[in-house]
Predict the 3D structure of the following.
Amino acid sequence: MIDRYAKQRIFLGREPEARLRDRRVAVVGLGATGSVLASWLARAGVGHLTLIDRDLVELSNLQRQLLYGEGDLGRPKAEAARERLAEANSSIELVAQVADLTSGNARELLAGFDLIMDGTDNFEARFLINDVAILTGTPWIYTGAIGGEGMVWPLNPPRTPCLRCLIEEPPASGDVDTCDSAGVLGPAVGIAASWGALEAIKILTGREPHPELARFDFWHNERQFIQPPATRCRFCTDKVTEFLDARWTLKASSLCGLEGVQIRVNPPRQLDLAALKPRLEARTGRDWKDSGLALTGTEGELRFTLFKDGRALVHGPVTPERAKGWYTEVVGA
Ligand SMILES: [Zn+2]
């Protein structure tokens, strides 16, 4: 029978290939990595994909985020990704979640999957995914890229070590999202993410993935396979989920490579943008714009974007403390 999956079936065999139809996968982060992960899994016929991303498509994304075009600028990535993937394969179930993964919603957002794919660019999210994996026994695949390098590591604690067996704490301070100050080459992310998707197909069809952490420096033609640590950390041994248990409510961190601050709330909440608009206009004496997804306007030399889920971006010369103060005053803590 010649159909959509004919070539794949010749390689995988009928029965393993059919298993993909019953599998549910969450892709966290639909940037450069997530675009490639989700594309391969959708085209391979994974029966259900949930696409989780908090951001809107920006011009600086188009160099490497293959799911988006210029017509998607300003749209939520999760929505635009779902639409594009449905064009590629209308026979699978695709769910878009425009959401910021936090300790307050990670359990709920990542419940009921056979595999979690890491398409994020920050360690805070990865440690949350690792905690969910420890708690629920769900396998996950770490995929990272920076500069001309890529890294892939399939994890399934307690059968395998967990992320914290190798790196006990996130590299940067817990309050700050890590910045990708080295930049990144599109093809480097593409290769790493394709490697991750291939390992995913192994797991979803019942095979064992490559157990080592694979690290490639594509630019300098180097590769390394790192043996997983021989001893297990206390977190996966005793099911200690510190990141899921973290009880922060408001975080302000400097924006990477831009002057400004990002504010996140935990758990995410629904802001009534229509009700906030007149209040902000009265406060600032200027017009604010409500797009339905976000409310934007200025106060003094600062430009504010308030998202429906409670997040905010403050562009301009401002400290995290001052941005947090403004937010508390205007929106509440
Ligand atoms: Zn561990």
Summary: The pocket of zinc ion is lined by residues 157, 161-162, 164-165, 232-233, 235-236 (CB under 6 Å).
